[in-house]
Description:
50% of the residues lie in helices and 8% in strands. It is of the alpha+beta class. The chain has two domains: 2-84 and 207-229, Glutaredoxin (3-Layer(aba) Sandwich); 89-197, Glutathione S-transferase Yfyf (Class Pi), Chain A, domain 2 (Up-down Bundle), CATH 1.20.1050. The chain has a four-stranded mixed beta sheet with strand order 2-1-3-4, with helices on one face. Helix 1 (10-22) crosses helix 6 and helix 1 crosses helix 9 (199-206). This is Glutathione S-transferase N-terminal domain-containing protein. It holds the Pfam family GST_C_2.
Amino acid sequence: MIHFYFHPTPNPAKVSLFLEEAGLDYEVVPVDTSKGQQHDPAFRKINPNGKVPAIVDFDGPDGRAATVFDSTAILIYLAEKTGRFLGRPQDRPQLLSWLLFLGTGLGPFSGQAVHFQYAAPAGLDYAVNRYRREAERHYQVLDGHLAGRTFIVGDEYTIADMSAWGWLDRAPKVLKGATDPWASYPNIRRWFEGIDARPAAARARKVGSDIEFKKVNDEETRRALFPSNFPPAA
């Protein structure tokens, strides 16, 4: 059994897709980040960085519980545990390269683009432009790579595709104001539609849909999500 610490955001979505593709036995443990539950001491023992997703695999190596945080680390761990979605051995260098491109580039720049376009105070035009343009640049790199390809790495569906699906699903929000977010990225469009048509993707979208997460964006939420913007409590 796997405990899956979850909030309905792009990085947990990647893990949801793997769990559904692999048919693993798991239990969703909600972490309402808008209420600050990611900062609770009990959760910080699981992820000291205070972010979702995280998992506790009670059937880890040698029968011991294994705790893993960070979506890329979780995907690699689960793929190695199950022996699935790792592609061919000869493709492993490219798999690692693209996983890190997604995990340290496309994902974070997309997240910052969303933050500065929707949540930051007005007047930060430089930051808005910087992160939006970097998100678009990462899209361009991936779109060029996908020309003539069905999957990101080699000829097989891998955890690289799962990782990219999580954030690219939010393209309409990342590319704020774009009537068609895929207009400039036809290879991503084709690739995304193929991944999104998989039955497991539909199931992954439903993960946590029966849980009521806070949706009000008030001061409690802002303090929970962006604590560094507020002075420490006296």
